[in-house]
Amino acid sequence: MNQAAGRDGRTNIAAKGLSGSGYEGHYFWDTEMYMLPYFIYTNQPMARQLLVYRYQTLPQARQRARTLGVDQGALFAWRTINGEEASAYFPAGTAQYHIDADIAYAVGKYYEITRDIDFIKQCGFEMVLETAHFWEAFGSWHQVGTSQRFEFHTVTGPDEYTALVNNNYYTNRLAKHNFELVTYLAQEILKVDPNGLTKFGIDATDIDAFQNLAKHVYLPYSTEQQINAQDDSFLSKPRWPVAQSTPENFPLLLHYHPLTIYRYQVAKQADTLLADYLFPEDLSPEQLQREYHYYEGMTTHDSSLSRSIFSILAARMGDVEKGYRYFMDTAQMDLVNLQKNTADGLHLANLGGSWLALVAGFSGFYVQDEVVHFTNHLPSELTQLTYRMKIAESVLEIKLTATETTVVVISGPIPTYGVSVNGQLISLAKKVR
Q1: Whether residue 281 lies in the annotated active site
Q2: For the whole model, what pTM was predicted?
Q3: What residues are paired with 147 via a beta bridge?
Q4: Cβ contacts of 419-427, under 8 Å, gap ≥ 24
Q5: CA contacts within 13 A on the Cβ side of 117
Q6: pLDDT value at position 54?
Q7: What does the pLDDT average to over 156-165?
Q8: Which of 116, 165, 206, 267 is the most buried (most CB within 10 A)?
Q9: What digits encode the pLDDT tens for the residues 347-378?
């Protein structure tokens, strides 16, 4: 990933990096959701440059939104090099509007860790604002009884085996976050510059409107299954036929017409569960258990982006042995040619997923409300896990064994963030060299 990452603000990370010709060198959402976290926590200047690349393509993103009949905001290309859409198949390409919210999410995570307000003022806020404007214009209000909800129709979520549906949970949850993030970052700008929003052409009325939209975004839920529903229709479809679930029929996209696959309740990869990973405090452990086991039974893992998310969530739920099995499939994917297409190049996002499985899974890392959380989920197959990450100006070293979890400051100041280890707030100390 270090080798493949763009450093000049004009290039990004190709899906196959520099290792092969697969995807013709194009960039996808893979960067923001699977690879950028590694850079945010280990190489912040490079993370910034990868986000600057997206900012450089903002004019093309605005034009893309207009092409699709959305009269405000910007829609970043699903597949691109120069910012223009290069996807030839719109149902599983351009219709994945969630890329807008993915990029906004990445901007928010970058700022959360670096506190780089200059980047926000120069590049980041404009991207988050333009994507929020897109969701505002793309969505529609729907009256249900005496209440209203804000919905997004005819979209494709991360699961490319389910296309052009209404209210994909992942898309809606990320759009909700996009609205919340634009209001938060606006307030951060105003803290350092009372007139800082003027150049963006918005004021308090606009911020109030975004806050209202965030409150009303519809998140589909199945009262029968007591889980978040992947979309309005997914749970009502027939399950993929058992007779067609034999090894020689996978991956499904190579053996069946897309319109055949779209009729069934079958998922190519983590979709609703991906949102559960990104927002760990959204749902109770009991609901996560129900959700995980339901969607696990529907998922083929035909995408290289899938198993790492299942590993992370299994570890978080305490099923560390399952987490380890999914992790090993992730870590060895290109070594054993698990997807049967390594000849086209390495699965770069899967490499990012391998890092995430270790850090977000086995060490339970996430950040919420300026508290950095670590929870020891180390599987018995691993005797020790040690890694370093940078939070603001502080380099932390995290070490896990079967019986201990330690977090110390290697360099820089003691961070102002709170640090929680296994559910308990701790005081950090500097490591004595």
Answers
A1: no
A2: 0.98
A3: 144
A4: 419/371, 419/372, 419/374, 420/371, 420/372, 420/373, 420/374, 421/374, 421/375, 422/374, 422/375, 422/376, 423/375, 425/371
A5: 11
A6: 98
A7: 98
A8: 267
A9: 999 999 999 999 999 999 999 999 999 999 99
Taking Cα atoms as reference points, which of 382, 390, 385 lies closest to residue 400?
385
Q: Does the pLDDT value for residue 421 go beyond 80? A: yes
Q: Which of 32, 130, 136, 160 is catalytic?
A: 160
Express each pLDDT in 112-131 by its tens digit.
999 999 999 999 999 999 99
Q: Give the model's pLDDT for residue 433.
A: 59
Task: Write the pLDDT tens digit of every residue in 1-51.
Answer: 999 999 999 999 999 999 999 999 999 999 999 999 999 999 999 999 999
Are the CB atoms for 351 and 292 separated by under 8 Å?
Answer: no
Tracing tokens 């229709």 back to the chain, one arrives at: 233
